[in-house]
Amino acid sequence: MYDSKSVYIPAMNVLYVGVLSLLGDEMLKTPLVVVNFKTYPESTGERALKLAKLIEEVSSDYGVNSAVCPQQVDIYRTAREVKIPVLAQHVDPISPGKNTGWVSPDSVKAAGAVGTLLNHAEHKIPLEQIKKTLELLRLLGLTTIVCTADVEESKKAAVLGPEIIAVEPPELIGSGVSVSKAKPEVVSGSVEAIKKVNPKVEVLCGAGITTGDDIAKAIELGTRGVLLASGVVCAKNQRAAIEDIVKGI
Q1: Taking the CA atoms of the chain, what radius of gyration do you get in angstroms?
Q2: Residue 74's domain is classified under what CATH number?
């Protein structure tokens, strides 16, 4: 017999031992602006906390839902000092134990994260790994944003039932050329395909998002917000950048 903290996962052939919880008030709400801090020096250490507080302040001023994705080492301090949702940038499909160098879902939850990105263009993983990781994340009550590159990958991801899918053509990431304007058919086509497979999955878009007009266009195409990074993180005036973005909501 397994108690409430031990669950056997047939797909992984492991006995998972952890603390189970349900999504509550910490669940991400849409429309939503998610800022991925990546590993930029402008969003590392003290700067990560400063940026998270700035995003929280501006989001509150404009009444917009936002979330941040700092580096793993900055999750704990950031989550303790802001009220907006904090997500990890990646986790691995492992249970607690002998896994040196890997990132367990338990560890980011303990640090204060309410979810994670998966399969970002800069950290692609096989579909089967996405599936196994989602199984663990669900047991912990953690929200997942699965990143996809196009309509076909979006369909495959939707079958797995993550809470959110973020469509990001990799060639436009960091380009300053918005996907919602350069490739609107990828955005609208992905929204349509995802909703046909699983109507419960929310859709964001990303890649080249830098202005409020970009996010307004993304929402017009059927998304529920955006995932962005350098447009805010690397901006000379971060406050002005995030203010412009949230105005698009």
Answers
A1: 17
A2: 3.20.20.70
Residues 56, 120, 163, 202: which is the catalytic one?
120
- What is the distance between the alpha carbons of residues 94 and 65, in angstroms, rounded to a whole number? 30
18 domain residue, yes or no = no
Alpha-carbon distance of 149 to 92, in angstroms, equals 20
Answer whether residue 239 is part of any domain. yes
- Report the number of secondary-structure helices (H) and strands (E) in the chain: 10, 10
Residue 1, domain member (yes or no): no
The pair phi, psi for residue 140, each rounded to 5°, is: -90, -5
Catalytic residue check, 90: no
Residue 16 is predicted with a pLDDT of: 43
Within a domain: residue 8?
no
From 56, 135, 163, 168, the catalytic residue: 168
pTM: 0.87
168 a catalytic residue: yes
Distance CA 59, CA 121 (A): 26
Measured CA to CA, the distance from residue 232 to residue 148 in angstroms comes to 21
Give CA–CA dist 122/133, Å, rounded. Answer: 17
Domain ranges, residue 170:
25-247
pLDDT digits (tens, 9 = 90+) for 152-191: 999 999 999 999 999 987 665 655 656 666 678 888 899 9
CA distance 97 to 104: 9
Q: Count up the domains in the chain and report the number.
A: 1
DSSP string, 126-177: -HHHHHHHHHHHHHTT-EEEEEESSHHHHHHHHHH--SEEEE--GGGTTSS-
Task: Please name the helix (run of DSSP H) or strand (run of DSSP E) that holds residue 219, with its range, or none.
Answer: helix 212-220
